[in-house]
Every structure is written in C-alpha cells, then in structure tokens.
C-alpha cells in the first residue's frame, strides 16, 4: 500500500504542477479563446486557489493509491497459483467501471458541445430580414464635443457623398438608428385621428433614413418600392409586413396615408418590406416603419451604413480614413461590420460551445488514453493465452478482433450510459438552445460514433503488438 500511495502521489504531484503551470502561462490564451472582448486583470498570487489545487492533488493521490491497494490479495500463494508471470488477468469491476465512466462523461460533454454548435449554426443561418454580409456601420460620438446640430447634419451629408464616391462601395445610406441595435418608438395615427396601437399598448418602432437604405442593409421589398431621392418632399414611408397586415387587413398598404402626430402632414406608404429583426434574436416582429429624411438638417445623428462589393479593397480602415479626412478634429469614430451588432447576443452560444467542446475533447482524450492503457495491459497479461490461441491455429485477424472487442465493449457501455445521462439532463439546457432540440439524433449519433472510433484507435497499437507474439516463446516463458 505504501508503494502504491507513493507512486500515485508522485504522478498526482506532477499533474498538479503541470496544471498550475498551464493556468499561469495559458490564462491569456484561454481569455482570447473564450472571452476575447473582456479584459482580465491577472492576479499576482492567489493563495486560496493554490491551496485548492494542492488539496485536489492530494485527494487524487490518496484515492488513486487506495483504489488499487484495496484490490490487493492477502494470500500470496493464490497469486502464485494463478499460472501467469504477471499476476491475475481478471480486470476488477472498479477498473472497468472507471473506464465506462470516462466514456460516459465524454458523451455528456460532447453532446452539450454538439447542441451548442448546432445552435450557433442555426443562429448564423437565421433569417433576420436583412443581408448583413459586406455591410459596415460608422458612428461618431458627438457628446461633449461641442458640435451644433447643423454641424452634425452637414458632416453626415458630406460623409455620405464621400463614402459613395469610394471605389468598391455598392450602396450607402444614413439612418437615425442602427439596425438590430436600436429603434425609436412612438405613436402613429391614421388620417381620421385613430391611433395605430394594439390592445396591449404596443408602440410602433421607426427610424428615419435616406434613399438606398433598404438596398444597403438588404431588406426584401414585398410590395411597392424603396426610397428615392425625390421622396423628401413627398414624405414617403415604408412599413413592415406586420404593420401592413394589422392596420390594413385584406387590402394593399401601398398608397395609404399615416401621420406621425396630430396636425402633421400625411406621409404616403410607398413600400412594404419583409419583417426584419428589431433587436437581433428577438422572436417577435413588432410594427415598424421607416421615414424618408425630409431635409438635410434632419440627419443630425445616427449612423452611416455602407455596403461594399464582395472582394473589394474597401474596409473599415479605409472608411475611417476617408471620414477623418473630412474633419481632422472628428470626435470618436467607430467603424465596424454590421454583423458585429449580433456578437454580444451570440457570445453565450459561442462560449457554451467552446467550453463544452474543450472539456469534451479533453474527456475523450482521457478516455482514449485509459482504454489504450487498459488494452495494452490486458495484452501483456494475456501473452500466454494469445500464444496458445495462435499455436492451435488462430489467425492474426481473430487476435486483432479479440483485442479490439474488449475496448469496443467498454466504449459501447460508456456510450449507452452517457446517452442516458445526456437525455435525462437535456431538459435543463433546452432553454439555452436556439431552434435545436436537446434530443437531436444527429448529435447523439455523431458523438456515439466518435467515442467508438476513439476506442478502436486506442486498441490499434496493442492489437498489432498482440499479433507479433511468438507462440513458442510465449509457451516456453511459462
């Protein structure tokens, strides 16, 4: 027992030192991988965490040393009578149970990784009612810079003209709100004074935009047309499908009239667009409308949206440089892809997929190493048996099947147990998935196949070693 505890203690100590070193030098890599947008302040010394690591190392050493010690035989003569050079060939139930548990844990973690990866796939393929590819958004923070509204409006108009002239720019437009990030809410009236609102008091969301806005962000026009430059004097408005269906049921919305407030001039509906997402991943589609900019001085705030031609050299840096050339004293300017607006909402799924994948791959690696060690040890213990089998006519293929079947049975048992555990716990993560069933058969089948494949790969080297056993030498050794 003392020898076993000493061996397990040495192995656990080396593992603990390696873990502390990995945390000390790999923390920055983990930060960039999991949460690249957050800044972590490194701790010079954290003795409670160090004590926790030391305690875990000692506990592992004790448990790993006691488990085999309890399997020791008290009668040495029984071991000598076992008839083998290396001791008993029977694998303890504890040993087999640990291997099955490793495989089951790998299944649970990899199923979680697969479900989160499927959610990410669904999120990227989700129809937001917009075409985000190739769209950049530029915003200037004027707060505290002393810019008057007329100066802001003049800059936005000049910026729009300058960006449209850049080679590689397909469309550009101004908007008072950034798509998927913000919208202005307010009331909307019909010509007879009736307020457009649902019984629960839902507001109508809107944004003031310039011509080419719909083409710039890739909105699909279902009826009518988008904005043109001449709409400034006509006070045009484009509504979404939900507003058109609820306010003018059974008849076309194009040509109808709406008012922003009492006494305001009538604005004509010139087009109907497919329902775009309002705040990213929100499943509902509230009533929305877009007003044409009626005068240059009304575009005093908001964002400049730019769609670039695929493969062109236009980038966020080139747009930033072009705008700074207009005003060298420009306040803080941010230029980023419009798809970046969704990054904070995608982060939980990406983080879940990354964490589950990392721990799942680690668990699968440990399971593979455990199966390899078990199979290799079994081959060493069964040298006499394999020699006898080959002496009486066993083929190399049958020896390989004999060795691989042991690892495969363990892996299959782990897959069955892990699948049962994953199915039982699937209801706890159902709310964290996006348009993916927590019992997705594709994920479960892929994970089960991966675990069995790892088991087969782990038995390749021991199986090849078994086929090289010399029957005469094996029998002579006994």
Order of helices and strands: HHHHEHEEEHEHEHEEEEHEHHHHHH
Arithmetic mean pLDDT: 79
Overall SS class: alpha+beta
Biggest pleated-sheet summary = 7 strands, mixed
Number of helices: 15
Q: Give the helix level as a range of percent.
A: 40-55%
Shape category: elongated
Oligomer: single chain
Gyration radius over CA: 34 Å
How many β-strand runs?
A: 11
N-C termini distance: 28 Å
Task: Give the strand content.
Answer: 5-15%
**Poorly predicted regions:** 85-89
Provide structural commentary:
The chain is built from 15 helices and eleven strands. It has 478 residues and is of the alpha+beta class. Strands 3, 4, 5, 6, 7, 8 and 9 form a seven-stranded mixed beta sheet that branches. 31% of the residues are buried. Residues 85-89 have low confidence and may be disordered.
Key terms for this structure?
15 helices; 478 residues; single chain; alpha+beta; four-stranded antiparallel sheet
Task: Please give a quick description of this structure.
The chain has 478 residues and is α+β, with helices and mostly antiparallel strands.
Describe the secondary structure blueprint for this structure.
Layout (H helix, E strand, L loop, with lengths): L1 H33 L12 H23 L6 H5 L12 H32 L10 E6 L8 H16 L4 E7 L8 E3 L17 E6 L3 H5 L3 E4 L6 H4 L1 E5 H7 L9 E2 L8 E7 L14 E5 L10 E6 L7 H11 L6 E5 L5 H39 L1 H9 L4 H30 L15 H18 L1 H8 L3 H7 L1
Parallel strand pairs: 4-9, 6-8
Antiparallel strand pairs: 1-10, 1-11, 2-10, 3-4, 5-8, 6-9, 7-8
Helix pairs in contact: 1-2, 4-10, 4-12, 4-13, 5-9, 10-12, 10-13, 10-14, 11-15, 12-13, 12-14
């Amino acid at each position: 027992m003392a020898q076993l505890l000493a061996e397990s203690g040495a192995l656990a100590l080396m593992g603990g030192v390696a873990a502390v070193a990995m945390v000390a030098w790999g923390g920055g890599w983990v930060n960039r991988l999991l949460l690249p947008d957050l800044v972590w302040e490194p701790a010079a010394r954290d003795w409670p965490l160090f004590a926790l690591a030391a305690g875990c190392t000692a506990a592992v050493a004790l448990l790993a040393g006691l488990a085999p010690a309890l399997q020791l035989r008290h009668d040495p003569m029984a071991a000598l009578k076992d008839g083998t050079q290396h001791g008993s060939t029977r694998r303890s139930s504890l040993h087999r149970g640990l291997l099955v548990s490793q495989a089951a844990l790998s299944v649970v973690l990899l199923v979680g990784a697969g479900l989160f990866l499927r959610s990410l796939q669904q999120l990227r393929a989700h129809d937001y009612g917009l075409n985000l590819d190739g769209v950049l958004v530029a915003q200037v923070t004027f707060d505290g810079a002393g810019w008057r509204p007329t100066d802001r409006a003049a800059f936005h108009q000049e910026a729009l003209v300058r960006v449209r002239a850049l080679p590689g720019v397909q469309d550009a437009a101004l908007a008072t709100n950034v798509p998927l990030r913000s919208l202005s809410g307010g009331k909307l009236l019909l010509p007879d004074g009736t307020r457009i609102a649902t019984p629960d008091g839902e507001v109508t969301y809107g944004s003031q935009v310039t011509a080419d806005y719909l083409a710039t962000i890739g909105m699909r026009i279902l009826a009518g047309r988008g904005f043109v430059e001449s709409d400034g004097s006509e006070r045009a408005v484009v509504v979404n499908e939900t507003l058109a269906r609820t306010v003018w049921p059974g008849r076309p919305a194009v040509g109808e009239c709406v008012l922003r407030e009492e006494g305001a001039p009538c604005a004509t509906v010139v087009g109907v667009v497919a329902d775009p997402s309002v705040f990213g991943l929100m499943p509902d589609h509230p009533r929305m409308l877009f007003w044409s900019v009626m005068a240059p001085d009304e575009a005093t705030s908001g964002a400049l949206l730019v769609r670039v031609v695929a493969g062109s050299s236009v980038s966020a840096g080139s747009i930033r440089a072009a705008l700074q050339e207009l005003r060298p004293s420009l306040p803080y300017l941010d230029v980023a892809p419009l798809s970046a607006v969704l990054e904070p909402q995608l982060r939980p799924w990406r983080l879940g997929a990354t964490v589950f994948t990392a721990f799942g791959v680690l668990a699968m690696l440990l399971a593979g190493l455990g199966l390899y060690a078990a199979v290799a040890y079994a081959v060493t213990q069964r040298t006499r048996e394999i020699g006898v089998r080959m002496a009486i006519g066993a083929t190399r293929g049958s020896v390989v099947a004999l060795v691989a079947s042991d690892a495969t049975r363990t892996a299959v048992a782990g897959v069955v147990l892990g699948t049962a555990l994953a199915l039982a716990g699937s209801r706890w993560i159902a709310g964290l998935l996006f348009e993916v069933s927590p019992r997705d058969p594709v994920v479960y089948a892929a994970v089960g196949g991966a675990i069995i494949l790892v088991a087969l790969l782990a038995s390749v080297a021991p199986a090849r070693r078994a086929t090289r056993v010399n029957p005469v030498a094996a029998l002579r050794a006994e």
